[in-house]
Amino acid sequence: MLSSFLPLIVLKEEETKRVDKELANIRKQFTPKGGKVAEDGSNPALSSYQRKKYVWKLVYIHVLGYDVDFGHAEVMVLVRSSKYSEKHVGYTALSLLLRGDDPMMNTILNTIRKDLTTPQPSEKKNSAPPDAGQSLALCSIANIIGLELIQALHSEVQQTLVAKSSSPNVKKKAALCLLRLVRTSPKVVAGREFAPQVAQLLQDRHLGVLTSAMSLLYGLASQIPGDYESLIPYVVHILGMLVLKKACAREYLYYRTPSPWLQIKLLKFLQLYPTSLVPPAENGNAKDAPANTAGHVAQLSSIVSKILTETDVSDSINKSNADHAVLFEAVNLIVTWGSSGPAQLREGAMKLLGKFISVREPNIRYLGLLTMAKLAQLEGSAESIKKHQATVLVSLKDADISVRRRALDLLFVMCDTDNAERIVDELVAHLVLADAAIREEMVLKIAILAEKYATDLRWYVDTILKLISISGDHVSDAIWHRVVQIVTNHPQGDLQAYTAATLLVAASPRRCHETAVRVAAYVLGEFGFLIAERPGMSGEEQFRILHQHWATSENQTRAILTSTYAKLANLYEECRPLVAPVFARCTNSVDVEIQQRAAEYASMREAFTPDQVEDLLREMPPFEDNKQSALEQRLREKEGDDSAAVVKAARPSRAERERAAQSKAAAKAAEEVQAEAKGNVGPIEDDPVSPMSGRLFV
After folding, report:
1. Is pLDDT of 583 > 50?
2. Is pLDDT above 90 for 418?
3. For the chain, what are the domain ranges?
4. Rounded-to-integer distance, Cα 258 and Cα 323, Å
């Protein structure tokens, strides 16, 4: 392998030698003979051709990655020149070789200001256009960026932008330059004062100027939307001219689509105002809307409707990409309106997305699934989205992992009480074939869905056991901790006995995942007595099944097993001879936690009375109500607060609300019983997330 890199090393060394030689030559050329330099430090003896040639060489060397720390004086000479060919080289080098905080920038500010504000008339027939100097200055300001430079020139940039004498080319560059300045220093533009000037730009007939102005407007409005809300009518008018009237210059028609880039910017701007310009719902009216916005509301509704229904996506890749981009932004606008918008538009958007998620192009499928997940969050969209459930399930098998992730998100979002079992079963079945890159995420979402929509908690327990058996390495501790919480907090019915029996069977094979051993040990320690009278499930048998995993278990699992053995020995006399040798061996364990637990459990009966031992090892009370599931918190950390899946997970389902009420009632009853037994001593407060903290272990 080393031999393959040797030629590269040799070439790099040769390049460095050549660059050093060239830099030494350029430095020599910039140093005048006799030491007679000009006032600005440049070499007056250099011709125009030589100065441009050597500065271009410096630029090239800089682009190669080498430091260039001289020649700045010659760059200044070129910038101050009245010839376009020299000024072009000078501004290019200025943008690349100097920083905004460089002291030499102060010497050139007046020249940049002059070029920026004063067009130079062309003297020759074939010379550069009059606005060439303005364009060069704007490009350099945008690329150099420095706080001092911004403070010195931002007002000139604004004046150039709105000046009537500025050409369309200059206005475009000025708008983008000002956007760059605003992103660096947002306070350079006062929103409410600058809004009328932007309105003036939006009345320009040149679509190139409008496109650049919308880029600037969107950047400004993204920071403070309220300052630019008055410009909504202008934006709606422009959008209507493009969509409804097809008013577009020929050079801005892109495969017969009128300026799709401008349409996208207009739609993105309108998405910043979800409540200011919302079409009336079918069952509502427009009386509450201001009179001056009623016309724009109706116009916008017809615009969006026409985009959804009349945009013809062709087989041409370029036209298809442009049309799809416009369609997706229109759908995103409908999503921002939420349930307040017309149901007809939401239905049309859903139908359109249903086509997108079934096409062959993976990018379109990805965006279709992503946007459908957002649309599914709206009230009243549940039934429409269920029609595409089969298509979404097919997308889980897509070759592109990004598409598979988005399909998983959409299935998570469209899940409810009616289809939860089918979706979860499909996901569990697919988990066997899923690759490692998506397994952890899939396991987490399956666990959340099973918990949220389980009308029968026995199904929830079975689902988690399937997850452990299929992909135990990707089942986090938070998942089985949650199982323990739910089972402990729901003593109604036979859930606890069912869980104990199911886990005992799951732990019976000698080869089972360690996570199954952990949750079985905890549950059997707490609720194993409920099944002790059943055939083959006695306390002694429970011990034997659990202890067969001792030798292959990690120390964390052994610690749980140690506490379970103590509980079994307390409940069943036949288990004490089996447990005692284990504790004796564990007192010499290298793990301090196991050693301490074994020693304390072994000496417990000598140190305390039988009643005290019974009290210490009694069944634990219900967990405290947890406002936020640990699984939801884990999902939020993975996907962010604005994820559709996170928003869905945060909303409690009907099944969750019913179980919470039952859990609260059970906790209250347990408190009363415990208060009677202990003389009104309250229950032990523990961490509601982790059942391993203080609940089973003494």
Report:
1. yes
2. no
3. 190-323, 500-621
4. 10
